[in-house]
Fold this sequence. Notes:
Elements: E1 4-8, H1 10-28, E2 33-39, H2 43-52, E3 57-64, E4 79-81, E5 91-99, H3 103-114, E6 119-128, E7 140-145, E8 150-151, E9 167-170
Magnesium ion binds next to loops.
Amino acid sequence: MPTKKLILSQQEIARRVVELGHEISALYQDRPLVLVGVLNGAFIFMADLARSLTINVEIDFVRVASYGMSSTSSGSISLSKDVGLDLTDKDVLLVEDIVDTGRTLAWLKEFFHDKGATSVRLCTLINKKERRQAAVEPDFSGFDVDEGFLVGYGLDCAEQYRNLAAIYHLEKPLV
Ligand code: IMP
Ligand code: MG
């Protein structure tokens, strides 16, 4: 079994998610906002973030098929699940677990602009800056971390560890 080192406790995450909810609510106020979660990693963050908002939102999900079971990007991105909502003239906030190279985010931003969204912003729980390749930055970010492979609170390694309540650094990823 790989060893895990605690990086962010359940309490730290909960506090920061509430702050993000306030920041996002203050920015959008009465505008029609759609939260679009990126499956599978964002499912827990989305559930907590959505409940920390004080504004009305619609919620949908996409699934991106780029990483498969590996811990590094394969480079090519496609959607294996699209949104069902009409996004024309709506503000879209993408909800991601973690931004690493930024390629997924860059691709998704263009994809949602092409769907006619008024604006496309990104909220990520974790901003991992060291390996950034695409020229994109999250508009809302929970925590900055250095390079390293993280699991828990939705983040996986080969579909394991998503259900951990805190976030850990995985010393030897199973890949
Ligand atoms: P990017 O296109 O390299 O920014 O890929 C971001 C995606 O890679 C995230 O949505 C995660 O699914 C996955 N990913 C990147 N780093 C990690 C990590 O440390 N732990 C778990 N998944 C990760
Ligand atoms: Mg993932």
